[in-house]
Amino acid sequence: MVRLELDQVVMRRMKEDDIEIVKALIKEGCEGTENRLILHILTRPLCLFILAVFSSILRCLVHSFIMALAIPVFLLIVFLKLTMPRSTGVLGSSRPYWDYVGSSFRGTQDETLQNPFCRISGKTPVTKKSRRSIGPKEKDKDTSTEKITPEREEEAGQVWVADCDGDILGCVFRESKQRAGIRRICRLVTGSWYRREGLGRLLVQSLEQRERETGAHRVYAHVPYPSKVGEAFFRKLGYQQLGEGTDEDEDGERKLETPERGFLGYSLTKVFYKDL
């Protein structure tokens, strides 16, 4: 495996031709996350109690102890499978992921993030045209019939992709500006072949630098609740979990920046923050 040269990575705004590739990255990065969230909810005490009550009721109707146990669990899993993507969307946001990949590319196409590795190596990264072409059917599928306005673009947020030699290796989603000086990272995905190469760190730190220059003083990151890897990643970058401190200011922020919640009100995300 060839080691990734981070100084050759260009971090730019997503374009229309990138949408299908970004969707594939999201799907790849989310594999297993939904199932772990469902398992997390199923193993909570209150949820186990409710399942036990329904199993006891079914035991009187079904002459099979195994079926009385399996039916409530199966129905709850189906319910969570159908409702969780709608409730979480992009983790930490009520907006579905397609709203980001479908409208944020209409921003300034030549925007790029600064790559700190270029200053160290003295090299200039070159962006080539993507090697993957999108057919007419795919383009038609992603074309929105609604009117796209600058206000809508701002509300949808931004998607930045890591481009190296025409290949998209990862992406980071930045939530829309809801509060002055506050930014939110609601998804970070790197391709499976480029993990543990520093690409995720490069995307986050470059985005932090840009937001710092535009006047932001704090960045939030919403991490799926069972993701120990995601939690460790952001802690290494200097993020703290909201609620660990005792400051009065932090108590106020907890009311404004709440984790996404699912069935029975259980948290689906952990909220981390970093002061820039």
What descriptors fit this protein?
11 helices; elongated; eight-stranded mixed sheet; 276 residues; alpha+beta
Summarize the structure.
With 276 residues, the chain is of the alpha+beta class. Helix content is 44%, strand content 17%.
Question: What topology emerges from the helices and strands here?
Answer:
Blueprint: E1 10-13, H1 19-29, H2 33-42, H3 45-61, H4 65-88, H5 97-103, E2 112-113, H6 116-121, H7 136-142, H8 150-156, E3 158-164, E4 167-174, E5 182-190, H9 199-213, E6 218-224, H10 228-236, E7 240-241, H11 248-256, E8 269-275
Helix pairs in contact: 3-4
Q: What is the helix tally?
A: 11
Q: Round the Cα radius of gyration to an integer and report it.
A: 21 Å
Q: How many β-strand runs?
A: 8
Percentage of helical residues?
Answer: 40-55%
Shape: elongated
User: Could you give a short account of the major beta sheet?
Assistant: 8 strands, mixed
Multimerization status = single chain
The computed structural class is alpha+beta
Strand order, sheet with most strands: 2-1-3-4-5-6-8-7
Average pLDDT works out at 77
Question: Percent of residues in beta strands?
Answer: 15-25%
Q: N-to-C terminal Cα separation, in Å?
A: 35 Å
Order of helices and strands: EHHHHHEHHHEEEHEHEHE
- Low-confidence runs of at least 5 consecutive residues: 132-145
Textual characterization of the structure:
With 276 residues, the protein is α+β, with helices and mostly antiparallel strands. It has helices at residues 19-29, 33-42, 45-61, 65-88, 97-103, 116-121, 136-142, 150-156, 199-213, 228-236, 248-256; strands spanning 10-13, 112-113, 158-164, 167-174, 182-190, 218-224, 240-241, 269-275. It has an eight-stranded mixed beta sheet with strand order 2-1-3-4-5-6-8-7, with helices on both faces. Helix 3 crosses helix 4 (65-88). The longest helix is centred in the first third of the chain and has 24 residues, at 65-88. Residues 132-145 have low confidence and may be disordered.
